[in-house]
Amino acid sequence: MTITIREALQLPDMVHTRLIAGAGGLDNPIRWVTIVEVLEDTSRLQEGEFLITTGFGLAEHTEKLASFIPSLAKQKLSGVAIHTGFYLREIPETFLTLADHYQLPLIEIPTEINFSTITKAILQPIMNRQFETLAYSSAIHNRMIDAALSKGGLPAIAGELAALTGGVVSLVDALGFEVTQHGSSEALLHDQSQEIAHRVPIRANREHFGTLTLTKPEHAWKELDDVALQHASTLCALEYVKERAVAATEWRLKGDFVEELLNGQQMTHTELESRCRMLGYPLAGHHLCVAVRVEVADQTMLGDMHQSVITLMRRLSDRHQRSYLLRERPHCLLFILPDDQTSLRLLEQLTSRWRGLHPELALQIALSNPCEQLPNVVSASEEAMFALQAYPLLAQSPQILRYRDMQGYQFLFPYHREKESLLRLWNPLLDPLIRYDTKYNQQLLETLEVYLAQNGNGLQTSQALYIHRHTLKYRLTQIEEKTGYRLEDAHQRWQLQLALMARRLQQQLYPTNR
Description:
Family: Belongs to the CdaR family.
Domain PucR C-terminal helix-turn-helix: 444-502
Domain Purine catabolism PurC-like: 7-126
Strand content: 15-25%
Structural class: alpha/beta
CATH superfamily of the largest domain: Reverse transcriptase/Diguanylate cyclase domain
CATH topology of the largest domain: Alpha-Beta Plaits
Radius of gyration: 38 Å
CATH class of the largest domain: Alpha Beta
Organism: Brevibacillus formosus
Largest sheet: 5 strands, mixed
InterPro entries: CdaR-like_regulators, CdaR_GGDEF, GAF-like_dom_sf, PucR_C-HTH_dom, PucR_C-HTH_sf, PucR_dom
Distance between the termini: 75 Å
């Protein structure tokens, strides 16, 4: 789009000018040419300008003479040309020293050359290159539009950019997934020159979708490559917006279907088959219901976090070529997946990726037992939701909790919907212990919990409680008297264990109760 000082000095009308200092800046690009005879305020000059001046008033002011070159260098001018013979008969030696120091090209214009000759000589190729750039930009735009409309999507756009520039193009989305890469990386490996990579963010409506990167050997890089890169990033942003709209429609259709299933709406096999085929979900085989919750302190963030989980799940499922159904609930997400190892690997990758993206936010995942028929997903969803509610008692993020691995809490599933049902399970056995502890400041309930957790091992229990074995024996005797259950009896010991579990579950589900 412009020319350098080096190129300008090679123009026919510039052959009589002379570079006298600042050769280190010969590759500075000239953005524009400015003629100023009386230079009062250098701060008005802009980066990349090429200044032509007679130096009027410099010879009479020592201070202006000393600050002339440094002030121009501060404004990052591309270069300066001084027309000698009018006000400066020769260029001061200090100018040469300072121009070399700041690498600011200093050019001497002899008296016989007019300002207009220099201005025209430099501006003409700049304007020509700008016209070339506009034409190239238009051609790029048309080729990129063709690529985008070819239904090739993001890979087609990246591929066209690689073909236009001869570089290596990679597209990484906001989640860190490499969406596509095009161009020969082997060519870069064989090229011994230094590589440079230009990265452009892909944004739309203040949302960041990813980063588009173009890598080429430094000697092969052209300004027009940046033009192509900008065009490609704009089309990638439009493609992401389109993808988001399509995903939102698909999400809504899947959600409606899942909601109908969860509401027990009757469907014929033909209708089920048709709906599943339209949504790309396999009807055959067993199915899993997966409940996912993000732990956030600020509930206003929940919607955005749900969207992050959905986007991450979509990226992972695309990689595994795995279809799923989805329904968003106020406090969690419900996914329906085929019951196989691929789905389990996908969920494990979901937790791993989430931990890398949002290490400060715990992700809880609970799985139902497999259901044989898709309409049976109603009971499967209840199992997954129950496991998610009990998750803090049994697992820690990023573990995946399966309903079948709930350590006996699944036997409390029929009672969890009402706090009174849970209360009836534990209160007759444990309430006497709680009242005794409260009245006499004892720890019978805690002792029972630790004793059962230690599988009835007295030594380990006393060590865990930091009490003498005689104290433990006394407490265990009190527990048996208050509950009427013998701890040596395995069946009665299991009932006590179940009562403790029911109490913990009630405290988890209904925290206002004791």
